[in-house]
Amino acid sequence: MKSVAYLGPPSTYSHQVTLQRFPPDQYTHLPCIQISDIFVAVESGKTDLGVVPFENSTNGSVVQTLDLFCDREKSFPSIKVCGEAYLDVHHCLLGHPRQSNGEISKDTVSRIFSHPQAFGQCEPFLTKYLKGVERVDVSSTSKAADLANKDPSAVAIASSIAASVHPDLQILASNIEERSDNTTRFLVISKATADPSSIENDDKTFMTFTVHHEQPGALCDMLMVFKEFGMNLTSISSRPSLIVPWNYIFLVEFEGHQDASHVKKALHKMNKYCQSMRVFGSYERGLKRDKRLDG
Amino acid sequence: MKSVAYLGPPSTYSHQVTLQRFPPDQYTHLPCIQISDIFVAVESGKTDLGVVPFENSTNGSVVQTLDLFCDREKSFPSIKVCGEAYLDVHHCLLGHPRQSNGEISKDTVSRIFSHPQAFGQCEPFLTKYLKGVERVDVSSTSKAADLANKDPSAVAIASSIAASVHPDLQILASNIEERSDNTTRFLVISKATADPSSIENDDKTFMTFTVHHEQPGALCDMLMVFKEFGMNLTSISSRPSLIVPWNYIFLVEFEGHQDASHVKKALHKMNKYCQSMRVFGSYERGLKRDKRLDG
Fold first, then answer.
1. Which of B192, B221, B252 is the last residue of a domain?
2. N or C: which end of chain A has fewer CB within 10 A?
3. ACT domain spans which residues (chains A, B) (predicted)?
4. Are A151 and A230 in a shared domain?
């Protein structure tokens, strides 16, 4: 049975997408404390696969994950990307039964625990029902549910499955997020990349690169190669290189499989324009509707 | 006397750069609780200027600031960028006199307060001297000093000026950050942009744009215009547009003043390739050494 590492503790959104994508009758699941632990688990061979949050449609990039892919210390030479998965994120307000007599009121709630991203996504609900109540930032929505479970006057913003693991908590309100299209994209990492999918143009490739600091327009030259070979960009981000200040590592995802001949030619041509590059592998598109950065 | 809003409370790094750039004998200073309050203060005319953190050479972009420049709700139609300022960030360990008898030891420290970015920047020091001591994330290094001041067994990672405003605290260790080149870049906002500087090629311009979702290669076409007109990029970032998922607003800074004829021509040409664009104005380069994204 193959094993999958995810960002725990159990009942996080990472756990939810892992259960969907890698059913527990076929995979064993390993909760990790930090995203870096997932990279370590895969690199060391402790698990076969890892599921890491990459970006949220409302909040943008997950910076810790970007930094791990930058791999400045070369700690993860074997890590590849072999898949992606999307999760529709629906937040619940979890609390104690006595808090739900009638409607949700700030009179029965002393504080709200959640992750900063979740607070950001539920602003209108909080303003309407719990304005002025103290908010406590914690490291995961799962941890938030844990803390609310121990405090009869507190509530948490967390996933619906967090209610099922805490018998003292119940769902006081569902779908309290502002946007109904709130989606998180996860990447699946392993030591092997994926074969081309059977459907044409259904693969994407993930890579990082740095450009020569002294060569004007080098970033533009790199992006031109993508255009020349018809490889649409689906994601671009950057992080400090930490070699010299204000020098960046770019993280790019594009349409096409690394084994396709036009992609091979393009990657070869890119060598001219970049200082360093690393291709993390190809995988089948996880979302059937179009996600393109530039068209 | 002109007034400047900054991210308070007093003794933050934002305060420090504001004091350097806008001396208190010439400007009144208004501390704000959140970065959005600085935008509101300038837009409403409550202050003439605002200083907002934009990026750190170690940690990258300040996402809250990027989102405010995205201005999705059109709340800040008058905001322009009229300057930039750099601050060398040096962290101190602040604590109580009895904790400094001899060397710093985890036996005399129950917990460490700081901002998550500061913890990230002092990892080797913390591992060496305070391994395993509880860390408490708070919203600013200034707040961290405040909390340590009230708790005789706690310490804080904060600026040296935070020690001067808390008489019970003293500097237990200085320059505890990992990288000596740890720098934060701030932008200065106002309702007016700056005139071209007297030195040629010493101005930069800040703008945001979105590209047509349906037009392949539109981002590349936009970047080509910068190259064609010799306008080097010095910064590029993106944030979710929040119009449809996986559609982005790009935030770009380039060399050149918006009143220069080649920049005017380039901006005119860009209109073809983007769905929307907003030029936030031009300002003199704050750092005399070269900071170029792509050359």
1. B192
2. N
3. 207-284
4. no
Q: Average the pLDDT over A241-270 and give the result.
A: 90
Do A149 and A278 reside in the same domain of the chain?
A: no
Q: Are residues B226 and B277 in the same domain?
A: yes
- Residues A188 and A51 reside in one and the same domain: yes
Domain boundary among A116, A144, A173: A173
Does the beta carbon of B212 lie under 8 angstroms from any beta carbon of chain A? Answer: yes
- Shared domain check, A128 and A39: no
Q: Does A238 touch chain B (CB under 8 A)?
A: yes
Predicted local confidence at residue A105, as pLDDT: 82
**Does residue A75 share a domain with residue A3?**
yes
User: Domain of B239: which CATH number?
Assistant: 3.30.70.260
Tell whether A214 lies on the interface with B, counting CB pairs under 8 A.
Answer: yes
Q: What percentage of chain B has pLDDT greater than the value 90?
A: 53
- Tell me the pLDDT tens digit for each residue of A163-216: 888 888 999 999 999 887 888 999 999 998 777 777 767 899 999 999 876 666
**Does the CB of B73 have a partner CB in chain A at under 8 Å?**
no
Q: Do B63 and A60 touch (CB under 8 A)?
A: yes
CATH number of the CATH domain containing A27: 3.40.190.10
Chain A contact set for B177 (CB, 8 A)? none
* Three-state SS annotation for chain A: CEEEEEECCCCCHHHHHHHHHCCCCCEEEEEECCHHHHHHHHHCCCCCEEEEEEEECCCEECHHHHHHHHCCCCCCCCCEEEEEEEEECCCEEEECHHHHCCCCCHHHCCEEEECHHHHHHCHHHHHHHCCCCEEEECCCHHHHHHHHHHCCCEEEEECHHHHHHCCCCEEEECCCCCCCCCEEEEEEEECCCCCCCCCCCCEEEEEEEEECCCCCCHHHHHHHHHHHCCCCEEEEEEEECCCCCCCEEEEEEEECCCCCHHHHHHHHHHCCCEEEEEEEEEEECCCCCCCCCCC
Selecting from A137, A213, A233 the residue whose C-beta is nearest the C-beta of B219 gives: A233
> What is the predicted pLDDT for the residue at A216?
65
Total domains in the fold of chain A: 3
Q: Could you list the residue range(s) of the whole structural domain that residue B265 is in?
A: 195-295
**Which of A25-34, A228-237, B174-183 has the largest mean confidence?**
A25-34
Which of A222, A246, A251, A275 best probes binding to B when mutated, by most B CB atoms within 10 angstroms? Answer: A246
